[in-house]
Amino acid sequence: MVESRPNASLKQRMNLRPAPVLALGLALGAILDPGPADAHPHVFVTSRSEVVFSPGKAITGIRHAWTFDPAYSSYVTQGLDLDHDGKLSSQELKALAEENTESLKEFDYFTFAKANGRKQAFDPPREPTMTYEDGKVVMRFLLPLAKPVPSSSLFAVEVNDPSFFVYFELVPDANAVTLSGAPAGCLVTVSTAKGLDMSQVQAMADNSFPLPTGDGYSNKAIVACP
Q: How many domains are there within the chain?
């Protein structure tokens, strides 16, 4: 994995807003106007997700937990240790968590959902929190569906950045995507994105390796209930 240190263009975008609050959306602003030097992953995220059901057994949203790579985590939290105790508390990270989740709207929250093949819209995120664990930022939030989806629907959700500025991988265990409050008999089938090694990422940065394409480079989960 290469270090996710922003290039000059990215730094300029981030410097549009003063420390201590550096929003993820600003850090990812180059997605909207990528140049040749941006055509490779700059930020790496390990994702864990939970598909949430209502008491009425409809799918109502997706709860994400995203862990960012150490280099990006260090960069984005500069100046946030307000009490100078050498630790980053959830309270110190609260404003960053709120601004990050709000800014993700323009990127479709990197989350794409379909019910019976029809694209689903999301309401604004809720319950944003952020923690600093083992040198990494972990951002958690609930992404509600604009309209609940009956559990009888075939529901598919994908976590991905089509621009490859951010590269998402699922946590490497059986609980990468789980169900909360689901009716008995519901099953979730998960397809995990292929990993990228350092040589591939560097080749993309040098423009000597094309951006990967195809379903093999996205994280998908399909939920089916009786």
A: 1
CA dihedral of 181, 183, 184, 188, whole degrees rounded to 10? -80
Q: Would 27 be classed as within a structural domain?
A: yes
pLDDT digits (tens, 9 = 90+) for 44-55: 899 999 999 999
CA distances from 74 to 6, 17, 43, 88, 165 (A): 12, 17, 12, 11, 18
Residue 3 lies in a domain: no
pLDDT average, residue stretch 156-184:
91
Q: Would the pLDDT of 82 be above 90? A: no
**CA 73 to centroid of chain Cα atoms:** 13
Place of tokens 């394409």: 213
**Residue 121 within a domain:** yes
What Rg do the C-alpha atoms of the chain give, in angstroms? 18
In a domain, 127, yes or no: yes
DSSP string, 93-159: THHHHHHHHHHGGGGGGGEEEEETTEEE-BPPPEEEEEEEETTEEEEEEEEEEEEEEETTS-EEEEE
Q: Domain range spanning residue 115?
A: 8-224
Asked if residue 160 lies in contact with residue 168, where contact means CB atoms within 8 angstroms, the answer is: yes
CB atoms under 10 Å from CB of 195, counted, come to 11
Secondary structure string (H, E, C) spanning 45-90? EEEEEEEEECCCCEEEEEEEEEEECHHHHHHHCCCCCCCCCCCCCC
